[in-house]
Amino acid sequence: MKTALGKIGFALFAAACMAGPLQAQEYPSKPVNILLGYSPGGSGDTIARFVAEELSKALGQPFVVQNRPGAAGIIAAEAVARSAPDGYTLLSGSSTELSANVSVYKQLPYDPRKDFEPIIQYSIQPNVLMIKAKDARLPISSVRELVDYAKANPGKVSYGSAGNGSTQHLAMEALSMRAGVELLHVPYKGGANAIADLLGGQIDVNFSPLPEIIGHIKSGRLKALAVSSSQRSALLPDVPTMNEAGVAGYEFVGWHGLVAPAGTPKAVVDKLNAAIQKALQNDLGRRLTEAGLTVTGGTPEQARQRLNDSIKLYGELVKASGMPLM
């Protein structure tokens, strides 16, 4: 009897040990949805579609991007956090919904540190401070002139963002704090919407991710005043950093990465990580670099550490800026 029970116990133990590898071998056996908290056309949308395309090729099943814009990415993030932890619903997230929102909102319907399994961070990106080219309403052509004009006209210079607490919003809050100016924030459901209104003259200035606006800058429709990173961009070598433009000590970059619901099997997380890591070393990395991004990559453990570090950094910025909580 004891021998029989012992054999049964061993069999169950062996089956449990095999579950992870078998799950990884079988995954994915059907299409995978990648949710995105922003409208089509923005940098997050572009990156998510690059990643989905590479995963589809590498893993043999369709990876489909679904846009669920609104509330600074919260709608999509909450949906993924509440999804089954089986690897078939993922979030292509950013530093907004996965880091900044923790400090920006009084009550967040998810906890990025507890409700997600970080898979990989794809890249970091600089924002570009810009104005509409040849805008007669705003007599400025440099960061210094923008600061001087804003000081002389407090609360009258408007800027857009992808939503409250988005990286664009916090980037401008950092500028306001360091330069001592008061600007008018106009939140949108996505960065592409803010750019459209900048081009249309509905807002005055914008801090937007480089991939979203490089075409408008090259065409002459928008004028770049500075980049938010500590070094100049290879795509805009003549555009100064904010520090070079006169805002001492300024640096602010966003990031994008892939996460799954908490409890997703490690074997599945590792399989996704390996596929993206390989792609980042080849076509995906090239495409992201050409778009003006800095490729990162790394392990799921590194992605989790970067997430925690980012939450701390944004929390310190929100607290220092005195931004009211949503």
From TrEMBL:
What the entry lists under CDD domains is as follows:
PBP2_Bug27 (cd13578)
Keywords from the UniProt entry: Signal
Signal sequence range: 1-24
Its domain of life reads Bacteria
Q: Which family does it belong to?
A: Belongs to the UPF0065 (bug) family.
What's the protein called, per UniProt?
Answer: Tripartite tricarboxylate transporter substrate binding protein
Query: From what organism does this protein derive?
Result: Pigmentiphaga soli
